[in-house]
Amino acid sequence: MNRGLFVTGTDTGVGKSLVSAALLHALRGDGRPAVGMKPVASGCERGPEGLRNADALQLQAASEPRPPYEWVNPVALADPTAPQIAAARAGVPVSLAPILEAHRQLEALAGRVVVEGVGGWLSGLGGGLEQADLVQALDLPVVLVVGLRLGCLNHARLTARAVTGDGCRLLAWIGSRVDPPGDDAEEYLRLLVETLPVPCWGVLPHAPEADPAELARFLTVA
């Protein structure tokens, strides 16, 4: 926790970016700085300053002090598809060296870095690089974002096993209500608490347009 976290999810679209931004605000509650990072991002839009990704911009905005965009997102890819495909189409090499250098700059700036992965745990980063490779190189614990919807019990348990099976340390999980809660919402939460091997740091409500600073109150970072 002194150096930061790596945030992964049970799937694409489960709210990793919103959770990561809320985590940054929660971490800064102790008065110390923390900054965000999205090492590889596809679906970037080109503007006057170059390629920019909405998730990476959200993490940059939630960071204090605010780092340069190039440190937050060192590998920016235009096509809104899997990073391996987007990188191949763009002819952009994906390797550890520039990512680790950007992380070193962020760590020197703030000490604690919340690193958001791509998609689910087994979504590759491109160039044959797996997320487990990056986590091991950064030596960071993993926080799992569980999208609370039908199928989440299976996805959460499989992901937890995959993270630990890859030799990485699973630290905690956070629930994300990607859909309005149904009749079985509390039962799903109870089963997740019972079956996942790490503590729950909180559950974010179904509020996709919410301010991450406001959502930080739903998190208890141990």
Tell me what you see in this structure:
- By secondary structure, the chain is of the alpha/beta class.
- It has one domain (4-218): P-loop containing nucleotide triphosphate hydrolases (Rossmann fold, 3-Layer(aba) Sandwich), CATH 3.40.50.300.
- The protein contains nine helices and ten strands.
- The strands form three sheets. It has a six-stranded parallel beta sheet, with helices on both faces.
- Strand 4 (45-47) and strand 5 form a beta hairpin.
- Helix 1 (16-27) runs parallel beside helix 2 and helix 7 (152-165) packs parallel to helix 8 (185-195).
Overview features:
about 220 residues, alpha/beta, two-stranded parallel sheet, six-stranded parallel beta sheet, Rossmann fold
Topology (SSEs and partners):
Elements: E1 4-9, H1 16-27, E2 35-37, E3 40-41, E4 45-47, E5 50-52, H2 54-62, H3 69-72, E6 75-76, H4 83-90, H5 96-110, E7 113-120, H6 131-138, E8 142-147, H7 152-165, E9 170-176, H8 185-195, E10 200-204, H9 212-215
Parallel strand pairs: 1-7, 1-8, 2-7, 3-6, 8-9, 9-10
Antiparallel strand pairs: 4-5
Structure annotation, total helices = 9
Name the strands of the widest sheet in spatial order: 2-7-1-8-9-10
On the 0 to 100 scale, the average pLDDT is: 95
From the alpha-carbon coordinates, what is the Rg to the nearest angstrom?
Answer: 16 Å
CATH topology call: Rossmann fold
CATH homologous superfamily title:
P-loop containing nucleotide triphosphate hydrolases
Low-confidence sequence ranges: none
Beginning-to-end CA distance, first to last residue: 9 Å
- Overall geometry comes to globular
Kindly provide the name of the CATH class: Alpha Beta
Structural class: alpha/beta
Known CATH architecture: 3-Layer(aba) Sandwich
Strand residue percentage: 15-25%
Helical coverage, percent range: 25-40%
How would you describe the oligomerization state of the chains in this entry? single chain
Biggest sheet layout: 6 strands, parallel
Series of H and E elements: EHEEEEHHEHHEHEHEHEH
- Beta strand count: 10
Number of domains: 1
